[in-house]
Design brief:
mainly alpha, 2 domains, about 40% helix, 6 helices, three-stranded antiparallel sheet
């Protein structure tokens, strides 16, 4: 449980050298916004020591801001500029524009890969048709090829629980498939 008188005195001491009362109000508003963003309890008396320290640190950063911005100026900034203005470092991770030839190349490669779909594959264990799942895989862990026989008596590759499956990166893909 935090002491409100201590919090008020600390904030007063921290902000007593700020010349403009409007700036003090902005600092306190931003610090309170920070506390709400970080989901601190609504009552400062319920804050932990760590939360109170973070709140005081935010006030200190806001006081040390080199430039005072008007509300209009601040609202006109993008998010990176706002973060920098309140003393927080951030890194822009939005990728730049991709060259259109790269996009076209990716589409052409994907279409060529889909054209490799095979309907002529036969299971080496039971000679049943093999499904080529490369175009419809939901996950990289799903098999690329699966025997159509769901009966372990018919297909010797069937484990009893799972029908025979193959992945492109396995060495047990039959050579006659030419994959």
């Amino acid at each position: 449980m935090q002491d409100l008188e201590f919090i008020a005195k600390t904030i007063h001491t921290m902000t007593e050298n700020v010349a403009n009362t409007e700036t003090v109000h902005k600092i306190m508003g931003l610090a309170n916004d920070y506390a709400r963003t970080m989901k601190f309890p609504k009552q400062k008396t319920d804050w932990t020591d760590e939360q109170l320290t973070k709140y005081f640190n935010m006030i200190e950063k806001l006081i040390d801001m080199p430039v005072e911005y008007s509300d209009i100026d601040f609202e006109g900034m993008d998010i990176q500029e706002k973060l920098k203005a309140v003393g927080l470092d951030s890194t822009e991770i939005t990728p730049g524009l991709q060259d259109s030839s790269g996009i076209v190349g990716e589409v052409v490669n994907k279409m060529a890969e889909q054209a490799k779909y095979r309907k002529d594959l036969k299971c080496p264990y039971c000679k049943s048709m093999v499904y080529d799942n490369r175009n419809s895989k939901k996950s990289d862990k799903s098999p690329d090829f699966t025997c159509s026989s769901n009966d372990p008596v018919v297909c010797g590759g069937h484990t009893g629980k799972w029908r025979k499956s193959w992945w492109l990166d396995n060495s047990d893909i039959p050579e006659e498939w030419g994959v």
